Amino acid sequence: MNRIKKGDQVVVITGKDKGKKGDVIRVLGDRVVVSNINMVKRHTKANPQAGQPGGIIEREASIHVSNVMLFNPATGKGERIKTKVLEDGRKIRVFRSSDEAVDA
């Protein structure tokens, strides 16, 4: 079970975007793409067949999953998480500090 999933709100804990919050757009193995975090400029060539204009496009680059923490709305901070197995055999993610479930 992945600690970070698509749609989660995360806080960046290291790097140039330290302290910023954003939603996870994609999970790529041990890397994640977070909205408006780690923005890079990409110089693209025009492709008229695909209707794609050329120029400098700014988009999100991936960031390593160890550099983000799941955001806990109750405390307003990023927190560590663990997995817990319920009686019926399902695994859920819970915050380590409060033992409250991440997934509703």
Task: Walk me through this protein's architecture.
This protein is mostly beta strands and 104 residues long. It has no helices and 10 strands. It has a 6-stranded antiparallel beta sheet, with no helix packed on it. Strands 4-5 form a two-stranded antiparallel sheet. It is elongated.
Outline the secondary-structure elements.
Blueprint: E1 9-12, E2 21-28, E3 31-34, E4 39-44, E5 55-60, E6 63-64, E7 68-72, E8 77-79, E9 81-85, E10 91-95
Antiparallel strand pairs: 1-2, 1-7, 2-3, 3-6, 4-5, 7-8, 9-10
Question: Which short descriptors sum up this protein?
Answer:
single chain; 104 residues; mainly beta; 6-stranded antiparallel beta sheet; 46% strand; elongated
- Major pleated sheet: 6 strands, antiparallel
- Lateral arrangement of strands in the main beta sheet: 6-3-2-1-7-8
Strand content: over 45%
**What's the mean pLDDT score?**
93
Number of strands: 10
Q: Any low-confidence stretches, pLDDT <50, length ≥5?
A: none
- Envelope shape: elongated
What oligomeric state is this? single chain
What percent of the residues sit in helical stretches (DSSP H or I)?
under 10%
- SSE order, as H and E? EEEEEEEEEE
* Rg measurement, Å: 17 Å
The structure class reads mainly beta
In short, what is this structure?
The protein is mainly beta. It is built from no helices and ten strands.
